[in-house]
Structure formats: C-alpha cells, structure tokens
Design a protein that fits this description.
By secondary structure, the protein is α+β, with helices and mostly antiparallel strands. The protein is built from five helices and twelve strands. It folds into two domains: about 40 residues; about 210 residues, Na, k-atpase alpha subunit (Immunoglobulin-like, Sandwich), CATH 2.60.40.1660. The structure holds 2-acetamido-2-deoxy-beta-D-glucopyranose (NAG) (5 copies). It is found in: Cell membrane; Membrane.
C-alpha cells in the first residue's frame, strides 16, 4: 500500500525554506525582494485609503445637514396612534384601574411637551389655516426655524387636564392620532386643512366574507374640532432646523362604544393633496386598531 511518506519526491538538494543562509533568503525571498513587496503594498494601501477618504469627503459635501438629499416625492405618510397598546390593540377593564392606568400614563408622558406653558414658552402663536413658510434665501439659512404652538388644552376632553384617565374609566376612551412627519410636505391646498375621520374597519372573516363593527363603534368626538391637522403646522423642516417642532395631533373620543366586544376601527386622513393608500399601500394615510373594553355588569 502507498504511504504518504513514500510519495514524497526527493530532489536530492534539501534547501531550508524558512531561512536559507546560503542565498540569504527568508521564506524564499531576499531582503530586497521583501522590501519591494512591502513598499508596493504600502503605496497601494495608502492609495486605496486616500481614494476612500476623498470619495467620502466629496459625498459628504453634497449632503445637507438640514434636509434629506433624496426623498420620495409626495408619498402619503402613515399614521400612528397613542396609546398603541400591544399590536395596536387597546384592551382594558373599566373596573380594573391597573388595566387602563398604563394607557393614561402613556398619554401623560406623550403630552407632557404639549403643556400650554411649554408651548407658549417655546413656540409661536401662528395665524391658522396658512402654511408657516420659512424658506432659506439661497445659501443664507433661515435657521433655526420657529414652530407653532399646539396647546395641550386644544385636545379638550382628551387633554388629560380635566379627566386624568382620558375617559378610559368611563368607557369613553381617547385615542391620539398623528401623521408621520415628512419634511417639506404640504398636506392641503386652498387653505383646507387635512382632517381625520374614523369608522368601523372592514375586515375579512372568511373567504370572500367581510365584516365591519359599524353598530358597535358608536358616536365619536374629535379634538381639535373636525379632527383637523391645521395647515400652520406645515411644512416641517426637519429635526435640526426646527428644534421645538410640536407635531399636531388629533384626538378621537369614543362616546358610546359597545362594551365586552372587539371593535375594529380605522382612521384615515382626508386631504385635497394626499391620497390614502389603495391596495398598493395599505398604510398610507390610514391606521387601524382594535378596542375591547370589558365592563362587568356588577
Ligand atoms: C403638564 O401638565 C400636566 C397636567 O396639567 C402636569 O401634571 C405636568 O406636571 C405638566 N408637565 C410639565 C413638564 O409641565
Ligand atoms: C396656548 O395657551 C396659552 C395660554 O395657556 C394662550 O395664551 C395661547 O394663545 C394658546 N395658543 C394657541 C395657539 O391657542
Ligand atoms: C426653542 O425653545 C427654547 C426654550 O424655550 C427657546 O429658548 C428657543 O428660542 C426656541 N427655539 C426656537 C427656534 O423656537
Ligand atoms: C368644521 O366643519 C364644519 C363643516 O365643514 C365647518 O362649518 C366648521 O367651521 C368647521 N369648524 C372648524 C373649527 O374648523
Ligand atoms: C349607544 O349605543 C347603543 C347601542 O350600542 C344605543 O342603543 C344607544 O342608543 C346609544 N346611546 C346614545 C346616547 O347614542
């Protein structure tokens, strides 16, 4: 049988590979050969590094600190609710304070920066129903830009000021809705502010079978009146340019929602410039969530 040892060809001359004292070769190369190789790689890597730094520098020069270089044009932003619950479900028991305290706490924290005192301190009182335009004049930046007051008190029954539980205890919960920020977006024209409407969500219960909880949703109240996102809060110029920006909110209060049953709700934006998503983008300009308020009879 062939053995590995036997396969080795003996050339007769056995030169040590690691260090050859006869030719002064180290790992098969002389000192000058090694030197050239090292020099080559040194120059090569310095060149590569230089290229990298240069392209990075040129790229950064083209970026603007204050606004994104690339942004999809006129996409309708998504909407979000507060409190969000777990998986967009607001579930609680009117008799169990702990079960809705977390929602009230979330809203308290969220609305803290909207306190009238802070709004008056940080922001301007703007003329409503007009865009608050603060363009830069050419290269001269008009920064930082001012923002408009959104007083917590404009949310009235849903402000948490008069009713510390935001209606949760009475089975008339408030849900806050916000439109995701898009820099430069103009959400309405001809002085018409976009507004939110909520209703029963159409959902699938089987193959080709749809259902909606229209009878269960009850009457709704919107704050500010008509559920508008006033035009004065737009356009948004970005976090860096508009330091004290307070995102406008709409609160929806469920005045007579059915208890002890799931209610699937969908809220959407109504605007004369933004389109709500169709089949292609279900989340554009709309948000849906589930409410289930348990209230034991005794
Ligand atoms: C905001 O107002 C609420 C209710 O009026 C109050 O409890 C809270 O302490 C205020 N927060 C700040 C930061 O002023
Ligand atoms: C916000 O509230 C303060 C007083 O709390 C009031 O002076 C101010 O006009 C209000 N701002 C707006 C925009 O309603
Ligand atoms: C933001 O709020 C701070 C604190 O009240 C205020 O000093 C500053 O002038 C505000 N900045 C802008 C751009 O509105
Ligand atoms: C709410 O909408 C109604 C009807 O469109 C309008 O007459 C009313 O002025 C609006 N209220 C506010 C505060 O915008
Ligand atoms: C509340 O809703 C129930 C049905 O869910 C209805 O019978 C009742 O009349 C409603 N109450 C008011 C004040 O709308």
């Amino acid at each position: 049988m062939n053995n590995k040892e036997d396969e080795r060809v003996d050339t007769g001359v056995k030169e040590p590979y690691f260090w050859n004292p006869r030719t002064h070769e180290f790992l098969g190369r002389t000192a000058s050969s090694w030197g050239l190789i090292l020099l080559f790689y040194l120059v090569f890597y310095i060149f590569l590094g230089g290229m990298f730094v240069l392209t990075m520098y040129v790229m950064l020069l083209t970026l603007d600190d204050y606004k994104p270089t690339y942004q999809d044009r006129l996409v309708t932003p998504g909407m979000m609710i507060r409190p969000r619950g777990e998986a967009m479900e607001i579930l609680y028991n009117t008799k169990d304070t702990e079960s809705f305290d977390i929602y009230a706490q979330t809203l308290n924290n969220f609305l803290e920066s909207y306190n009238n005192s802070l709004q008056v301190q940080n922001n301007d009182e703007c003329p409503p129903d007009n865009y608050f335009i603060q363009e830069d004049s050419g290269e001269v930046r008009n920064n930082p830009k001012r923002s408009c007051q959104f007083n917590r008190s404009t949310l009235e029954e849903c402000s948490g000021i008069t009713d510390r539980t935001y209606g949760y205890q009475k089975g008339q919960p408030c849900v806050l809705i916000k439109l995701n920020r898009v820099i430069g977006m103009l959400p309405g024209k001809d002085g018409q502010s976009p507004y939110v409407t909520c209703g029963a969500k159409r959902y699938k219960v089987g193959q080709d079978e749809w259902k909606e909880d229209s009878d269960a949703i009850g009457e709704l109240a919107y704050y500010p009146p008509n559920g508008t996102f006033n035009l004065m809060y737009f356009p948004y110029y970005g976090k860096k340019a508009q330091l004290n920006y307070s995102q406008p909110l709409v609160a929806v209060k469920f005045l007579n929602i059915s208890l002890n049953t799931d209610v699937n709700v969908e809220c959407k934006i109504n605007s004369n410039t933004l389109k709500t998503g169709g089949e292609r983008d279900k989340f554009a300009g709309r948000v849906s969530f589930k409410l289930r308020i348990t209230s034991p009879k005794n």
